[in-house]
Amino acid sequence: MSHSSLLDFEIMQQIGRGTFGVVYKCKRRKDGGIYVLKELKLSGCTGDEVQTAINECNILAAVDSDYVVRYYDSFIDNSTQTLWLVMEYAAHGTLRDIIIKSKDYISEQDAWYYITQMILGIASLHASHIIHRDIKSLNVFVADGSNGQKYSLKFGDMGVSKQLNSTIIMSQTLVGSPYYLSPEICRSEKYNIKSDIWALGVTFYEMLNKGKHPFLAQNQAALLVNIIKGKYKPLPAQYSQQLIDLVRWCLQQDPSKRPDVFSLLAIPPVQQTIKQYNLKLPPAVEQGAKEAMQRLSRIKSSEISRSRLASERSTISTQSSTKGSSYIPQRQIPIPQSQPIVQKQHELQIDSDIIMVDRNDIHEYKDDFDDEVEDNQSAARPETAAFQQKLQELLMEDAKLLQKFEDTVREISSYQVQQMTKDNLINFFVQNDNLDEKQINDFVFKLIPLNKIGIVQYFKQYAKLLKQRQQVAIEINKIMLMIKG
Question: One MF term in GO for this entry (predicted)?
């Protein structure tokens, strides 16, 4: 399906609303097929930014996986300056809906079935060098099942709308729901594929614990503190140790100790689930899983060899004690230590110097900001409560700066300057302080015409706000380290 227009579809009902527009269930007039139309308002966006969003759609459309919501088409309605995305329709809502509707704990068998599909979904994205960056139960969509199963799970909302903010600084920010933020993001460190794995672990925990998240708090600042501490209540004892260990593995504080998604595919219960339900693997995912299983096999062989060496040494030690001082032991052989299974990350790594939380998600689950256990811990350490208060103040300050910053970005975009020129000008103002008018004129008006002189004030404001936000990020990081210490 290509070259669609809004006239090709009959709007049936609104099924969601986001920052950039509304999401509709619709019927295609030609064949009666049911799809989702997602609206993205383009007001204030430059041509380059719109093209970036369209390119993102094309990348997602190339992902051929049963575990990722399919992007069929995109088109622009010039009369309303709106980008429309045509996507696969999931009839049963989201995983969050399934969790809330379940009166009892999800069964072990269903848990492995859902978890395996989620792993396959993220593997499909990572194999295509796409980081999701906003994994949560609300972004796991539930469609009709196959192989006699009631549901099939698919990841969606890979952040096309975020590309509409694709100025140079916006590429340095991170967007995500606060409950799913990894420790490295809370510490203003770099985001990579292992941050996706952390969010996947949080989603698994939420599914296995009747919708409760592993890290709870009364406010956002305390939540970030608890994520960095890394302590959470155990999962219900009804689940197998393998399932509990899987969640614990994903929620390792150190990103280097977390598995990559293909290592998750290699564990026996996931492999058994794939075979049991005859789940289809995209070729790139299947290859990644095979390589991970080979690595796992080598590690197991190494562990067996190490165990044998330890047994032989024990025997030699016993013989030595009986032979007296004339016995010369064999040369000691160093035992190799097994290394964690880690996928190369450089192709999927994104820099982040500033924390940016999606403000629309902060109060999404209000009950989770009330946890007596964490309150008692804070009361036992008054200095922690003081740090949390300071952290909350810094987050509020950053939120105010962010609003001003976004307003400035929109003003810059309204001047319709080419993206490369805009990036050059932004770098110029960011890297140079205390410029006089002559310096500005000599550089700026080589790149833009005189009738766009008004943009200069916004570049100055941009540079100022950027540095203020960077300073706030540094202060947030200091507070985090104090709390952890």
Answer: protein serine/threonine kinase activity
Fold classification of 95-284+343-372 (topology level) = Transferase(Phosphotransferase); domain 1 (1.10.510)
Backbone φ, ψ for residue 18 (5° rounding): -125, -175
Q: Calculate the CA 123 to chain-centre distance.
A: 13
Amino acid at 70: R
DSSP state letter for 328: -
Q: What are the backbone angles phi and psi of residue 214, rounded to the nearest 5°?
A: -65, -30
- CA dist., res. 30 & res. 7, Å (int): 11
The pLDDT tens digits of the residues spanning 299-331 come to 766 666 666 666 656 554 544 444 433 322 333
State the SS3 of 137-198.
HHHEEEEECCCCCCEEEEECCCCCHHHHHCCCCHHHEECCCHHHCCHHHHCCCCECHHHHHH
Helices 241-250 & 193-208, crossing angle to 10 degrees?
140
**What is the largest distance, in Å, between two alpha-carbon atoms of the chain?**
96
Three-class secondary structure of residue 474 per DSSP:
helix
Kindly provide the b/e burial profile for residues 48-86, where b requires at least 16 CB atoms within 10 angstroms of the residue's own CB: bbbebbbebbeebbebebbbbbbbbbbbbeeeeebbbbb
Catalytic choice (134, 196, 260, 368):
134
Q: What's the pLDDT tens digit per position in 152-180?
A: 999 988 765 444 443 333 223 334 578 99
CA distance 481 to 485: 6
User: Rounded to an integer, what distance in angstroms lies between the CA atom of residue 357 and that of residue 395?
Assistant: 9
Alpha-carbon span 368 to 450, nearest angstrom = 54
344 is in an annotated binding site: no
Token pair, residue 136, equals 């949560």
Whether pTM > 0.85 for this model: the answer is no
Q: Dig out the tokens for 360 from the structure.
A: 């629309």
The DSSP secondary-structure symbol of 192 reads -
Q: Tokens 């307003």 appear where? A: 407
> Which homologous superfamily is 6-88 in?
Phosphorylase Kinase; domain 1 (3.30.200.20)
Query: What does the domain layout of the chain look like in residue ranges?
Result: 6-88, 95-284+343-372, 381-484
